[in-house]
Amino acid sequence: MTELDVIKTILNNITYRGDEVKGIGDDCAVFKVGDSYLTVTSDMMFRSTHFPDILTPFQIGMRVVTATVSDIAAMCAKPLGILISMGLPKVERGFLLDLIQGIDHGCKRYSCPLVGGDTDKAKELTLCGTALGITDNPVYRGGKVGEDIMLTYNVGRVYCALEILRMRDRGEISRETFHNLWEEYPDIMKKLLEPTARVKEGLLLNRYVGSCCDISDGLKKELFYIGNFEISSKKLLRAIPKDVIEFCDRFQIDPIHAALNSGEEFELLFTTRRCDKVVQVLKEGCNGEAWRIGKVVEEGHYLDGEELKLGGYIHRW
Asked: Residues annotated as binding site for ATP?
């Protein structure tokens, strides 16, 4: 059973519907409140499945804030606050303090105060973030035919960082080589250890995009949320940083494969009819950048004219 199976079961068996503007199926639920819209999202993380063993408690704390707030950014909304519930195994006080300081750092980074939560005993570290945001123009998933598909900054680094960990775990590299790779590719490792939610970028994009989502489960999977698409590998290559190209060449990995399957990048994937304006607004507003990688089309899901199969990270039970 996959995550999609679970969600379908929920949708088919929950019969009560409220008066939300947008319910299950997008990055956030959306409620009309006066002249504005309240966006609400929740994200749950477990120590064994969501946090690589090289993350410090401080980085874990930052990560739960970043991952949760990223869904607010995907709606092009402004964060209002976050609630974090903690399931805690037996941990040292120092671990807990570092974790909390990481949460606090993340809250300051995104101007998103911690406003509540819950604590309980658990077999493994479990963190659940619920973030609230506000906007007068919520942006949903799903592009319109003819819109260009763009993404912020770059993709591929998280895939490469995890590949370094996989090579270590498979015994393909020594401990010394592992640490050397970490030092050789600092930006690749940083994208895994300390990702960024694109809140500023989302707010700047609000008036210029037709749809938006964040890249959490991999670019390939998120593309399917847009709808039907035609992607160009030549254009996508421009959004792949040089260190990823170098790493992929060194370890015989297709950089396009790395870019399409790199999850938890937290970049924004969006559609627009105003590419030049988007590039200008991001550059002037936050020294940001965005790359056009394809178009929304009438039917099909294509990479260079070849049918692309749904992929990305899928939870399984």
From this structure: 117-118, 141, 216
- Binding-site members for Mg(2+) are 27, 41-43, 71, 118, 214, 217
pTM of the model: 0.94
Q: Which residues of 173-206 are buried (b: 16+ CB within 10 A; e: fewer)?
A: beeeebeebeeebeebbebbbbbbbbbbbbbbbb
What are 162-199's pLDDT values in tens digits? 999 999 999 999 999 999 999 999 999 999 999 999 99
8 lies in the same domain as 94: yes
Same domain, 112 and 193: no
Q: What is the pLDDT of residues 237-293, one digit of tens each?
A: 999 999 999 999 999 999 999 999 999 999 999 999 999 999 999 999 999 999 999
CATH code, domain with 301? 3.90.650.10
Q: Report the candidate in 171, 205, 225 with the shortest Cα–Cα distance to residue 75.
A: 205
Domain check: are 196 and 236 in the same one? yes
Annotated binding site for substrate: 50, 264, 313
User: Structural domain tally of the chain?
Assistant: 2
